Fold:
Amino acid sequence: MRCEVVAVGTELLLGQVVDTNSAWIGEQLALAGIDSHFQVKVGDNQARIVTAIRDALARSDAVICCGGLGPTQDDITREAIAEVMGVELQRDEAVAAVIREMFATRGRVMSDNNLRQADVPEGAIVIPQTRGTAPGLICLAPPGDSHGVAGVVYAVPGVPTEMREMVRRAVIPDLQRRSGTTATILSRTLRTWGLAESTLAEVIAPRVDALEASGNPTIAFLASGIEGLKVRITAKGDDAASVRLLLDEEEAALRALLGDVVFGVDDESMEVAVAALLRHAGLTLGLAESLTGGLVGARITAVPGASEFFRGAIVSYDRAVKHDLLGVPPGPVVSEAAAGAMAVGAARVLGADVGLAVTGVAGPEEQDGQPVGTVWLGLALDGEVSATLVRLPGHRQQVRQLAAISLLDLLRRRLTARAGAR
Amino acid sequence: MRCEVVAVGTELLLGQVVDTNSAWIGEQLALAGIDSHFQVKVGDNQARIVTAIRDALARSDAVICCGGLGPTQDDITREAIAEVMGVELQRDEAVAAVIREMFATRGRVMSDNNLRQADVPEGAIVIPQTRGTAPGLICLAPPGDSHGVAGVVYAVPGVPTEMREMVRRAVIPDLQRRSGTTATILSRTLRTWGLAESTLAEVIAPRVDALEASGNPTIAFLASGIEGLKVRITAKGDDAASVRLLLDEEEAALRALLGDVVFGVDDESMEVAVAALLRHAGLTLGLAESLTGGLVGARITAVPGASEFFRGAIVSYDRAVKHDLLGVPPGPVVSEAAAGAMAVGAARVLGADVGLAVTGVAGPEEQDGQPVGTVWLGLALDGEVSATLVRLPGHRQQVRQLAAISLLDLLRRRLTARAGAR
Structure:
């Protein structure tokens, strides 16, 4: 089974909007075991959309058209699909009723344009809308018709949240049914921090070897920029319960090899992991940030409910603020002594159980004879104070981002070890 | 003149990497007056890359292939282009010498694979590499050849920095020469904050009308997410000097209408604008952040050299920190009084000339009876204290981001007015 993606929108070609939808759909197709060999962007021009769909159907079994389903005159994906199918558009009164109802309940006046979204190619199956006002479509091109196309054309909205929900709910299951796949395929991603890709590969090599014979589950590596490396487990089976069991078993086997290198699962960020550990331990946190300038606090407070455990931060960017407010002793401020004193000072000034601190050289220039990327992390907890040196690669923004996640990871490991010891 | 983009890489189809290159190239083509009707992603498979290039040449005059020029066996764009052209690859000894030299000066051992990057299709023009090791290519398909293709195929690396430099330096000028365009086209973007798109359109309508007759320069609007709206001026002329003059004149005319709504030009962010004003005024800054949790400090310190004017921040996330450390009087902390007191407290505690503060409700739940999006901005400067209420739309992360940029904008306007009054 092969499926292409046609992303519709002149704004995509002009670079005003980056097409992230195709990448997301491509990932879902791969996870569902469906090949995608070509993905195309085309503007809001009916003849060209028709060309793009026909070319795609000539090469593949299915096409997902993304975008161009809205109410404006620019939204002509419906018309283009009808032309490819050699049929007319007709108003679906059930869809029209839903659209009218949606406007009525929101107390808004509906212009007639909105009913264009209820026009569907004859013979099309409607994918009911749940979030926006545009329904999706499933259209079958009969094999050997006069246009020489055969296959299935899906249409989904271009708004990412609406598109994702509809692809998950209706498109992937329909594709799997048509491909004769009755298997359930699920994946789970373990997120890691602290190992290089080659080291990570060595550590989990025993599992990769063990799985080679059965090929189920499979393991893949994904880099995710500065947020660490991901290990994705993909498993296949007759039903969701048995597939989840395979994922559980493989996750346990990988965690036994990786230990506390794993910080989260799927969309779980480092700050979510830290927040869960702080809540569990019943500890409050105070920060002292220098080169990160507030990045660590911004990440912690991105977690809803952070006020339960986060007291605040002292961003001591200026040297005098470190000495006067945090009580850092005279001397160099990118140092073991400064990092420790900042952590102690943060806990004291902010009235927190845990003091966490970061000081270092972000660049562009070296500071006090220390090269760019020299970063000290400080931690004060349970009456103990420690400081850790890391040397981070890259330029100013990368050093700052890596310093923030390194600091959060330090706390995560300490709290994990602490919970294990109790 | 029509030019398509073929982005090469299996990782793009699988969604492991989002193809931002095509969007960027599409924008450059549009600015250069060249149409781009289709953009395609294809995997690392020679037959499919050949298909993608042939299809593109059948529809358009030129194709830019992006990616697949590296040293590994997966990098087969060179081979695919040679197949399309019906020629062989041959080693370009001058390019090979540059690659050997690059490894030698970095003291690294070169594997022979790297010399694959010196293999070019017979008859191709080499675009010399300046940053990486892979040169770009310009290949001409003769009209009416046996493959039925005609036109020009460019190859550029997939690494964004290398790609951009090469497209700007060699590809766009070559396309313009072939299209018979001798004109120089340049653009300049004015970045604005604070007006809705419809209001902005009304304000600059006189300029849009005035330019309609000549069509040079032209004006376009671009949304840029939460960072405000952009007004792009594009001008055309015989040489760069005369085009810059047109841009200067139009910028002045637009600024006269827009006033201090314009915060920057091109890549200039809000924090860069604020930093320049603080430096110019010789003032130091201290922050007090609540719902933003450090976002404002993180933005300010993203500007290299921020240590010249930025003292630091008190992230007073917990209520007690506001009262105890910043001297906020007892009572509600999302209030005019609290925002003003936080600003005064930040300036005092951090020893800064300017105190800037933000307190509000990010959600997910309301606080002290105030709805999500209620945000107070405080400013203490020149012995005056003021507080401003804003009501921001969206959910937690959007409210936090909008609060941060609103606060920076408040300071920007105040410093601009202050500089004008002196």
Q: What stands out?
A: The longest strand of chain B covers residues 184-192.
